[in-house]
Design brief:
Chain lengths: 147, 267
């Protein structure tokens, strides 16, 4: 391959790298915008400002109607039980706790809780177990009227 | 705590009479009970309690006000002269006012918000260590009746042996009850004619129609994909009005039926 071709290839790769950096910057700014958006509850934002590095929360909250919950059950049979179980708790809970309440496996409850979080019907957050480790714990919480 | 909702496809089947008497009877047997008038369109508990010997310390705040976020759950629960019996009233006057702030708020708050408030109320009652929270729900399929069904552990499906009830029951089973995973469903057949008690000889056509209707409802429940066992059949007792019989007339045949029903409920 000639030196000329090498040069061209390097230029193209450099352009791709620049584009990727721009995309990454834009995604970062979208993330920042969403984190400060009014769709997230105020208490979450205030907690974030206390422990920004340790806590990462996901989702846009919504309060599902009974009809939405019933319809959800049709697409995900069994999810209704998870939804009712988490409604009994006011604080953040882990999927293990819900599994204890429903007498089902943690994996299944985790899957249902993630789906509920994805729909915005429950809130989800990740917390670092300790500052040295990269491992995180996932917590879920109901969307209340005061959220 | 167990949340029980009395529901039916149509009105006038006796939900209020059954739920109020059941709630009071459970309280008389030592359980801590909270009874909620959740028929927001046509609340009737306040007048029913007023016509009884029951003494209610009237709270001015209604459940409707709690649902729209005007009051806390503690301020809508009325205490009574029975330590372990509490009741919650809905306020028809507020709803009737055309320009009512609450009426506007109910619309503005959205359907999901009311459900969230119901769950909040249940959590509060749980923290107060109630044994039973009983909802007297509005009939049919509405957002509010669905809310009560969604939050319940047990659902009492009240029916009457009339023809229109059969097709309606089929509808609520397929559209509602079959989708409520985790809730235990029971049926109650109310006002069933007792031919042997009649003073006159009934027309054979009428007798046959009653039998056909009872059979129709039983078949509908049996054929349902969802298990809705018949928990109790209440006979039609003449001159049963809207009263708290278990308190005011303990020897009344209706009180006896409620006793039997509550025993089954507690099993």
């Amino acid at each position: 391959m000639s030196n000329l071709q090498d040069q061209e290839l390097k230029t193209i790769l450099s352009q791709i790298l620049t584009e990727l950096k721009t995309i990454s910057q834009k995604l970062h700014s979208i993330d920042t915008y969403l984190a400060s958006s009014s769709t997230l509850p105020t208490h979450i934002r205030s907690e974030d400002s206390v422990k920004p590095a340790e806590v990462q929360r996901e989702g846009v909250i919504a309060m599902p109607s009974s009809l939405e919950i019933i319809n959800l059950q049709e697409s995900r049979p069994g999810i209704f039980k998870t939804y009712k179980a988490i409604q009994k708790k006011e604080d953040w809970v882990k999927s293990e706790e819900i599994a204890d309440m429903t007498s089902r496996s943690r994996g299944l409850e985790s899957r249902y809780l993630n789906f509920l979080a994805q729909k915005g019907f429950v809130m989800k957050k990740r917390e670092k177990i300790d500052s040295d480790s990269r491992a995180t714990e996932v917590w879920y919480r109901i969307v209340g009227v005061n959220s | 705590m167990e949340t029980i909702t009395f529901h039916s496809y149509r009105g006038g089947v006796g939900k209020t009479l059954l739920s109020v008497n059941t709630a009071v009877k459970l309280a008389l047997s030592g359980k801590k009970v909270c009874l909620v008038d959740f028929d927001l369109r046509a609340p009737s508990h306040q007048s029913l309690f007023a016509s009884s010997t029951f003494s209610v310390s009237h709270a001015t705040k209604s459940f409707t006000g709690f649902l729209v976020g005007d009051h806390g759950p503690e301020s809508v629960i009325n205490s009574t002269n029975m330590d372990n019996f509490h009741c919650v009233f809905s306020n028809i006057e507020i709803l009737q006012q055309k320009e009512s702030k609450i009426r506007t708020k109910l619309t503005q708050h959205g359907e999901g918000r009311i459900l969230a408030k119901l769950f909040e109320f249940i959590r509060y009652c749980n923290s107060q260590e109630f044994d039973f929270l009983i909802f007297d729900c509005m009939p049919g399929i509405t957002y509010r009746s669905l809310d009560a069904l969604v939050v319940s552990d047990k659902i009492m499906v009240v029916t009457r042996p009339v023809k229109s009830e059969i097709s309606g029951l089929r509808l609520v089973i397929s559209e509602c009850y079959s989708k409520l995973e985790g809730a235990k469903l029971f049926s109650i057949m109310n006002q069933v004619e007792q031919i042997e008690d009649l003073v006159h000889t009934p027309n054979p056509l009428d007798v046959n129609l009653v039998k056909v209707n009872i059979l129709g409802i039983t078949k509908c429940l049996e054929e349902s994909s969802t298990s809705i066992p018949l928990l109790h059949t209440f006979p039609r007792i003449p001159f049963v009005t809207e009263r708290i019989y278990v308190l005011d007339e303990k020897e009344h045949p209706f009180s006896t039926e409620i006793d039997i029903f509550c025993t089954k409920l507690l099993q």
